[in-house]
Amino acid sequence: MKEIFGKEYLEICPISFEKYYGQKITLKGTIHKVRKLGGLLFIILRSGKYFTQCKLEKNSLNIPDESYNEGNYVAITGICQIEKRAKYGVEIQIESIKILSIPDEKMPFSINNHFLDISMDTNLDFRPISLRHQKESAIFSIQSAIASLFRESLFLIGFTEIHSPKLVFAGAEGGSNVFKVEYFNKKLFLAQSPQFYKQMMVGVFGRVMEIGPVFRAEPHDTSRHLNEYTSMDLEMGPIEKFEEIMEIETYLLNYIFEQLPKRCAYEINELEIEIPKINKIPAIKMSEALGIVKTIDKTYKKNDLDPNAEKIVCQYIFEKTGSELVFVTHFPKNIRPFYTMEDPKNPNLTLSFDLLFRGLEITTGGQRIHDYRTQKEKIKSFGYDPKDFMFYLQIHKYGMPPHGGLGLGLERLTMQILKLSNIKNACLFPRTMKRIIP
Length: 438
What we know:
By secondary structure, this protein is α+β, with helices and mostly antiparallel strands. The protein has eleven helices and 19 strands.
């Protein structure tokens, strides 16, 4: 008898059960759903993210009813056989059920219906339970694959993964939107981004990337904001122009979008979505984007893009080019951080960009200042004391190549790929102004 668990857990996916056809095997998991059909019971066993159909002929075996109550953790032993009508084309003919654990209470809501029909608050209040629903867990299987493919695509072109501190001496973006932390009688901050450290590491490895949490003390409670999210960052040098960073992002998104259907075919089918395809991502300057918005919305007065303006620009570009993504470049210097390089052709603008996807900004990037004196003066012009940034300025003082990078929000990318209505649905355990548990 083949027992599939422990070291051989990787083999538990029902898709790979062909090697066990006709054999007696044991699967361990939780009873997700029980369906009665005449004298037959169909038990859906959830093992991690996989669901296996098991069949019990009710009168042929002496198995007590309480053995297969929904929520029980069990070990099911039986014969693996082909069943084309089952989800993965495989079924276990049950011979015995061993109870491993029994829940103390009934579920607060059903997790085995086709849709999880509960409110957002209930979903998040009972998050460890709601995530057991197939559609909820499918979101995070896909998100896991996105992060893995981000790494994989960059490893292939010479990037090195780094892990930077999240307790930092200064906020990378400046301003007051940072969380302060008491640290042995010192004042530190939770990192808004790995910006300073990834720039430092360009001087070591040339091409670096990181996936990690970042913290923004922004007083927003919207469908697009989190106060803690996962940022997928890269930084590279030497570069000759900031558009090279955009080319890298086009490459990595192309890689992710091409590979996702292969890695997550069943999850994509479960969520009934279509992964977009990329040929070339169009790019327009900020001035052009504002022109588009102001032509459509005559009352628009801002020199930046608000959420509605981002939607207008994306819709316009989609109608003109068929692309669901668009780069917006050359942002004014007064709305970009102090490390952003100014455009030599127009010092009021910067060599920077945002990437908009289906009406939402998912990436901010651009070229950084690499000259010591220029960076020191820029820090002063922002009202900061260069002495507070002495460790950061070391890289400029002792030589840095022209370089640049970007930060790509994992939750926002997940949200837009899957067409979710709220970013909280793309975060396992959201941290917002009003929510810090579970």
